[in-house]
Design goal:
Glutaredoxin, globular
C-alpha cells in the first residue's frame, strides 16, 4: 500500500511539473518531439543533434521491478549495436533526492542516463506507468509509441523493433522518400 501511494504521489508531482498532455502530437510515423536532458555525468543530450541515429528513449524508475528487469537487455542491445548508430537514453522519474539510488542501479550500464527533473520532454504525453519506451528512427520519426506498447523489452523484441531501423543507413534515408512499413518494424505480434 505504501509503495502504491508513493508511486501515485511521485507520478502526480512529476506529471504536473514535467509532462504535457500532447497525445495529439505524438503519433507513430510523424516527427518525434525533440527532447533535451542533462545526463548524470553532466553531458548534454539533445535529440535534435542526433538525426541520422536511431534513438531508444526509455522512462523508468529504481522502484520499478519491470524497469530493472528490462535494463540488462537494453544495455546488451545497445552494446551490440551502438557502432551502427544507436543511441539509448534512460530517463529516471525518481525523485531527485534519490540520485544515489539511480547511480547504483545504472552503474554497470553503458547507455546514457538522466533524471526527468530538468529535462525538456514536452510532447511525450502523460506517463501512467513505467517502463515506457519510445523509438525514433534516423529521420527523427517516431516508430514506436511506448504509451501504446505494453510489453517489456527483451532481446527478441529489440531485434524486431529496433534492428530493422539500424539497417537503413543515412544514405538510404537521404535517397528514399517512402516511410518504413509497419511490417518492416514489427514482428512482435503487436
Amino acid at each position: 500500500m505504501y509503495c502504491q501511494l508513493r508511486l501515485l504521489v511521485l507520478l502526480s508531482c512529476l506529471l504536473a511539473g514535467h509532462f504535457h498532455t500532447a497525445a495529439a502530437e505524438l503519433k507513430e510515423g510523424l516527427p518525434a518531439p525533440a527532447f533535451r536532458a542533462e545526463l548524470l555525468d553532466g553531458a548534454k543530450f539533445d535529440s535534435a543533434n542526433l538525426l541520422g541515429k536511431v534513438i531508444v528513449l526509455n522512462f523508468w524508475a529504481t522502484w520499478c521491478t519491470p524497469c530493472r528487469e528490462e535494463m540488462p537487455a537494453i544495455d546488451a542491445f545497445y552494446r551490440a549495436h551502438r557502432g551502427e548508430g544507436l543511441e539509448v537514453i534512460a530517463l529516471s522519474i525518481d525523485d531527485p533526492r534519490d540520485i544515489a539510488k539511480v547511480r547504483r542501479v545504472v552503474k554497470d550500464f553503458s547507455f546514457a542516463v538522466a533524471m526527468t527533473p530538468g529535462t525538456q520532454i514536452a510532447g511525450y504525453g502523460r506517463l501512467s506507468r513505467v517502463p515506457v519506451t519510445f523509438v525514433i528512427d534516423r529521420q527523427g520519426v517516431l516508430r514506436l509509441d511506448g504509451l501504446k506498447f505494453a510489453k517489456l523489452l527483451n532481446q527478441t523484441n529489440l531485434e524486431s523493433l529496433v534492428a530493422p531501423l539500424l539497417r537503413h543507413s543515412t544514405q538510404d534515408i537521404a535517397t528514399s522518400t517512402r516511410p518504413l512499413e509497419k511490417r518492416e518494424l514489427l514482428a512482435t505480434g503487436r
